[in-house]
Amino acid sequence: MASGSRQTCPGRRRRPWQDPPGARRRDRPHLVGYLRQLEDRVTEAAPARARIGRVCVARSARSAGVASQLMQAAVASAGAREQVLDAQAHLEHWYARFGFTAASDVFLEGDIPHVTMVRPAPGIG
After folding, report:
1. Residue 5: which region, alpha, beta or left (left: phi > 0; alpha: psi -120 to 50)?
2. pLDDT (tens digit, 9 = 90+) per residue, 17-48?
3. If you average pLDDT over residues 70-80, what whole number do you get?
4. Which one of 13, 17, 30, 68 has the fewest beta carbons within 10 angstroms of its own beta carbon?
5. Residue 14 falls within a domain, yes or no?
6. pLDDT at 72 (0 to 100)
7. DSSP SS3 for 7
8. DSSP for 72-103?
9. Is residue 22 domain-resident?
């Protein structure tokens, strides 16, 4: 973690994506939270999965439930697909509130301990 409030991850750079729908509120015209959803490809060993690639909330909006709202929307949008994410290890219990369970040992990503977590498709597991 870099000094201040910003993380640095080797090999990553900022990308100029548009704000996702609902990311801006009228009382806060700037971006306060972001959740990136991706689709894992189908392989012979695994069906398509919904992947949560990044969840971040502006320091000024933390403890206001923004991340929880983003996660609830992501879980709802997964439909019948399994979901997977790589959580920072210290947030494992937070993601468990949304039905995710650890599926790997702790590993380093950008010098930050992470754990892969999975949420089964509805009706499975």
Report:
1. alpha
2. 444 555 555 565 678 899 999 888 777 776 67
3. 91
4. 13
5. no
6. 94
7. coil
8. HHHHHHTTTSEEEEEEEGGGHHHHHTTT-EE-
9. no
Torsion of the alpha carbons at 32, 94, 81 and 75, rounded to the nearest 10: -40
Give the tens place of pLDDT for each residue, 86-106: 999 999 999 999 999 999 999
Whether 41 is in a domain gets the answer yes
Task: Indicate the DSSP class of residue 25.
Answer: B
Whether residue 7 is contained in a domain is answered as: no
- Measured CA to CA, the distance from residue 117 to residue 18 in angstroms comes to 27
Does 1 or 96 have the greater pLDDT score? 96
Take residue 114 and report the two structure tokens written for it. Answer: 């992470």
Query: How many structural domains are present in the chain?
Result: 1
| The two three-digit tokens of residue 89, written as one number | 């290890």
Q: Which of 77, 58, 70 is nearest to 95 (CA)?
A: 70
Q: Cite the DSSP H helix spans in the chain.
A: 66-77, 92-96
Instruction: Please give the Cα distance from 102 to 15 (Å, whole number).
Output: 29
What CATH number is attached to the domain comprising 86? 3.40.630.30
